[in-house]
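Supplementary notes for students who missed Thursday's class. We covered one full example, reproduced here. Read the sequence, then the structure, then the short commentary at the end.
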Amino acid sequence: MNLDDYIAEKEAEDPAFREARERLRPQFEFRKALIGARLAAGLTQRQLAEKMGTSQAAIARLESGTRLPTIDTLYRLAQILGVDFTITPQEPLTVRPHKAA
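Structure (token representation):
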């Protein structure tokens, strides 16, 4: 059994597991999108940290979910990575490449 099968089985068997997974989905999607945007920009955690004026450990905390970003941090990430972060009732978080005006 692979991980996806295991998760699907747990969600089918356990409503509390399914609810917790849905509740945490926005944070997971943010972390996944942040890592993807950093990699698409060709940056290591250390390089992104240097551009942000912070430490590699701070970037690792954002990517691991142990620290939630401030609005200022999201703004700086968007500028450096060239992405737009959007939060709506329909989509808890999307990350798209920034469109030039």
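Commentary. The chain has one domain: 3-97. Strands lie at 83-86, 94-97. If anything here is unclear, bring it to office hours.
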